[in-house]
Amino acid sequence: ADPNGHVNVFAGYSVIERDKSTASTLEDHPNDLEAGTAGVTITIGPVKAGFQRTAEFFGLATSASTEYYANTSWGVSFNVNDDLSISYGDFTSKKGYVTQTGNNNRRLEASSLQLAYSMGGASIKIAETDVDNAQYVTGSTQDYEGTTVALSLAF
Fold it and tell me: Is the pLDDT of residue 91 over 90?
């Protein structure tokens, strides 16, 4: 790894044009589907961190339609040595509707802590992951926790 570090900045934007036949029948002049992203990663020695914002706008007209998703994600990793690394990631997504009312703008949140160790041809990876408001629905029935353990052997 470069001990002086480096920075990578990126951005992207797309538009998908839609005609009347693919849009809501309630809309005379449909809006196009738009998506954008911007982010940055920074590497300094054994540490790498990143941040990204994304958004997708659907251009729909009906009041119950999803108008957009706005997402924020970030993460950081640390290579302790050639065999051991630890990382953490966080993701938040907001789902917005055409008609903005109190309960229809929900946030989904997820985070994960990972540990990876390798020795020769063997590696073990462990991840502890939490998700709140899965499927953009509040309540404890939509909150999840999970632990993943993966062992791999190369011959």
Answer: yes
Q: Are 77 and 48 in contact (CB under 8 A)?
A: yes
| Per-residue model confidence as pLDDT tens digits over 124-142 | 999 999 999 888 887 778 8
CA angle 68, 99, 67 (to 5 degrees): 15
3-state secondary structure the chain: CCCCCEEEEEEEEEEECCCHHHCCCCCCCCCCEEEEEEEEEEEECCEEEEEEEEEEECCCCCCCCEEEEEEEEEEEEEECCCCEEEEEEEEEEEEEECCCCCCCCEEEEEEEEEEEEEECCEEEEEEEEEEECHHHCCCHHHCEEEEEEEEEECC
Residue count of the chain: 155
Q: Give CA–CA dist 59/31, Å, rounded.
A: 5
Look up the pTM and report it.
Answer: 0.78
- Residues forming beta bridges with residue 95, ordered by sequence position: 69, 106
